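[step 3/7] inverse_fold.run input=structure_tokens len=131
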């Protein structure tokens, strides 16, 4: 089976505030914004260089805003990502270095959390696990 994850839903309370955060603050691309009907509004944004987008809006998910705590993205440099988040005014955790990568986290205005992972060099985790 071939499978590509291309869209993850993020529950938010205020769609315009979410657009401002993801597009204006983080620099994601606004792909689609559509009012489907009076109860449904759909927004799709994509992080730079990502093959996977996120969607949020009104009437598109039953998840409670602020409960999406499982978004993880791979980045080339955790320290650089951490600095960029701080420069953009986003509170980010200190970089944590573990055998399986270096990590920094942040939350959107609703409390949905993101983990950014810098992968370790190929083969280094297996070597560390055997030591």
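[step 3/7] decode complete -> sequence:
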């Amino acid at each position: 089976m071939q499978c590509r994850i291309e869209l993850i839903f993020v529950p938010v309370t205020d769609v315009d505030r979410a657009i401002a955060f993801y597009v204006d603050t983080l620099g994601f691309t606004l792909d689609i914004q559509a009012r489907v009907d009076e109860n449904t509004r759909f927004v799709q944004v994509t992080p730079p260089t990502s093959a996977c987008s996120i969607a949020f809006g009104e009437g598109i998910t039953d998840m409670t805003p602020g409960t999406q705590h499982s978004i993880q993205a791979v980045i080339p440099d955790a320290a650089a990502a951490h600095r960029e988040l701080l420069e953009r005014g986003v509170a980010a955790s200190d970089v944590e270095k573990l055998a399986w990568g270096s990590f920094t986290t942040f939350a959107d205005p609703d409390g949905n959390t993101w983990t950014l992972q810098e992968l370790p060099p190929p083969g280094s985790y297996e070597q560390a696990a055997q030591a």
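[step 4/7] annotate
DSSP finds three helices and eight strands in the chain.
The radius of gyration is 16 Å.
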